[in-house]
Amino acid sequence: MSEPTRPTRRAMLSLAQLIGLVLVLALACALPFVVSNYRVFQFTLALIYAIALLGLNMLTGFNGQISLGHGAFYAIGAYTAAILMDKFGVPYWLTVPAAGAVCLVAGFLFGLPALRLEGVYLALATFALAVAMPQLLKYKGLEAWTGGVQGIVIVKPDAPPWSGLSQDQWLYFVVLAFALALFAIGWNLLRGRIGRAMVAIRDQPIAARAMGVNTAMVKSMTFGVSAMYTGIAGALGAIVIQFVAPDSFTLFLSISLVVGIVIGGLASISGAIYGGIFIQFIPNVADQISKAAPWAIYGVFLIVFMYVMPTGVAGFIRILVGRLKRGRNR
User: Which of 173, 174, 213, 255 lies 20 to 30 Å from 120 when distance is taken between CA atoms?
Assistant: First the structure.
């Protein structure tokens, strides 16, 4: 019996990937009905972090721009949603695209002067943004809008009566819908001409310019789109948690996002999901292991993950699948 041809193998691989995707979606839809409301809340936050990590991965993993300040865009998105809901009575679902639009503009404008910076210098500039953001939110002149150190309390949206869902279950499906849409947009963007231009600028910026790529515009737009994803995640986070305050958006949030893309896998779309799960659940696991020194345990987890999976979880899975395929072909 003859071996399958290369096109046949590709079709079989695509079919297997499609089946796997359908199974994952089915599992994600069934999840809120088999776990407690608290676990549903945790998985909702993991999805929110995954959205933010996908945005940061576009910037750092695919375009090569290092950012240590994306927690600031997360804060801008969160406060945009909170202010619109609290001060103007805007429906919660409308505040999410509004937060994304605000952060798209803010990220693009920040990316323009950042074009003069690369590597650690860009990282330091974004680091300054993350450090300054909590202080700006506490500024007396903005207190009427931001609530100052007290922050803003948001009313948790009720599930529609026809859904038969609890508030946590409903918000989980709302976040899941946004996540699916944003991941689909991100996949198409990164697999298209713009995505190839982003990677070309990361790997060979001089060659990219020689090939006619407008590197300045691509880098600025990448910064804007990355900030938009993070701002949408911030808006969803504010709605789910029902509260925003300056101390919720410290430098540690920005560092956690960087940790998430490294653990999940740089330049990997699926890595954003693994990173979001890591950010949400590993600190809780570390706290359960040791109440006295949870961050020491967290540090051990980081070391183990980097030692065992230096290319991130997505890279580790990709290598494992490749070895299994080679084993079958022998």
Answer: 213
Q: For residue range 178-203, list pLDDT tens digits in order.
A: 999 999 999 999 999 999 999 999 99
Given the structure tokens 């909170």, which residue do they identify?
A: 82
Whole-angstrom distance, CA of residue 200 vs CA of residue 221:
15
Looking at CATH, the fold of the domain delimited by 36-329 is given as ABC transporter involved in vitamin B12 uptake, BtuC (1.10.3470)
- Residue 265 and residue 270: Cα distance in Å, rounded? 8
Element (H, E) at 243: strand 243-244
Q: What does the pLDDT look like over 273-292, one tens digit per residue? A: 999 999 999 999 999 998 88
| pLDDT band at residue 1 using 50, 70 and 90 as cut-offs | very low
How is residue 229 written in tokens? 């994803």
Q: Which residues pair with 152 in a beta bridge?
A: 244
Residues 80/105, Cβ–Cβ less than 8 Å:
no
Confidence (pLDDT) at 150: 94
Q: Which two tokens stand for residue 263?
A: 């653990």
User: 252 with 127: CB under 8 angstroms?
Assistant: no
Q: Is 171 exposed, middle or buried (0-12, 13-18, 19+ CB in 10 A)?
A: buried
- Beta partners for residue 303, in sequence order: none
Q: What are phi and psi of 66, to 5 degrees?
A: -85, 125
Looking at residue 249, its amino acid is F
How many whole angstroms separate alpha carbon 138 and alpha carbon 117? Answer: 29
pLDDT band at 13 (very low <50, low <70, confident <90, very high): low
Residue 151 DSSP code: -
Tell me the domain boundaries of the chain.
36-329
Contacts of 71 (CB under 8 A, 6+ apart): 130, 133, 249, 250, 251, 252, 253, 254, 256, 257
- Residues 155-177 pLDDT 10s: 999 999 999 999 999 999 999 99
